[in-house]
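Continuing from yesterday's entry. The apo prediction looked reasonable, so today I'm repeating it with adenosine-5'-diphosphate included to see how the binding region is handled. Same sequence as before; SMILES copied from the compound registry.
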Amino acid sequence: MTRSDELLGRAKGGATVEFRQVSKHYARSANGQPIAAVRDLSLVVQPGEICVLVGPSGCGKTTSLKMVNRLIEPTSGQILIDGVDVMTVDPVALRRRIGYVIQQVGLFPHRTIAENIATVPELVGWPKAKIRARVDELIALVGLDPASYRDRYPSQLSGGERQRIGVARAMAIEPPLMLMDEPFGAVDPIVRERLQNEFLDLQRRLGLTVLFVTHDIDEAIKLGTRVAVFEQGGTIAQYSPPAELLMRPATDYVARFVGSDRALKRLAVMRLADLRLSPVSSAGEGPVFSAETNVRDALAALLLAPRAAGTVVDSSGVPIGVVTMETIASAVQPVAASLE
Ligand SMILES: Nc1ncnc2c1ncn2[C@@H]1O[C@H](COP(=O)(O)OP(=O)(O)O)[C@@H](O)[C@H]1O
Ligand SMILES: [Mg+2]
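Holo prediction written out below.
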């Protein structure tokens, strides 16, 4: 077994990623002074988590990501994948086994969709029949029809379709780790929303670990298990689950970055099951919600319901409580108070 097999050889499940005091300095040409793109970055991503790096342009997100697959090498510090320092692993082997998706996708224009997806499996010498089967499986996995897409060229696809194929290609050998740099940035909001949902679904099913870069706080809140908010100069202002970020921003900078509408945003990351529901009274009235419904969607439905109350049921349809506007208001009040 080679070092990289040891590192990333598992077929299923996600890797653990750890940044230990990682810095990256670039020599600035004008005055020769080194500038820090990333400064003393430390964070841990657990298996199966989506860690979102979010922040304004130029704050070091892409640099942080590219140090994981050694497209950029750190000036100091260490990055470990399942406890192994990436600097001890052959970079080519490392990159073949870490999925990488970027905004411009980077599909090879003169290769068909099937050939694009087959790139890494071919490089690592999979038998042809296995590659063919896997390609079709992946095209279907990202929601397209293999028969009508496998022989097309990238120019014959829409932006959203190309983005899906980019994700399929990155997943070809079931990497335990995916690096995604603004992967949905170039598509329109409706397509983006659909791609985000499909990606979340896929990620949960496969249990991949993902490092995801975006400058869009809404995308970060939606996708992140944990969100690292970067500040200019390559430091992290806060590294927390989305709900925590919205409820208790660590600094004024974070509060401004997540936005003054963070009470509303927080509703989208809470489920009805997280609320203190009123007891079920007589026969359930109003709309019926699954306990997994996000609170923002429930609020939207309640605003249109005649009595502004709804019944919450568990996965087997048994009522577990009643949700009202008051229930929801009391859940967000601490946030509203901290805004003052
Ligand atoms: N090759 C490079 N040489 C010099 N400076 C660079 C280089 N790549 C990035 N930088 C600088 O490092 C900082 C972080 O860049 P980057 O990681 O691309 O930011 P982000 O992805 O958050 O927009 C920026 O100030 C950028 O100008
Ligand atoms: Mg970037």
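Comparison notes:
- Residues 26, 37, 55, 57-63 surround adenosine-5'-diphosphate (ligand 1) (CB under 6 Å).
- Residues 1-11, 336-340 have pLDDT under 50 and may be disordered.
Will overlay with the apo model tomorrow.
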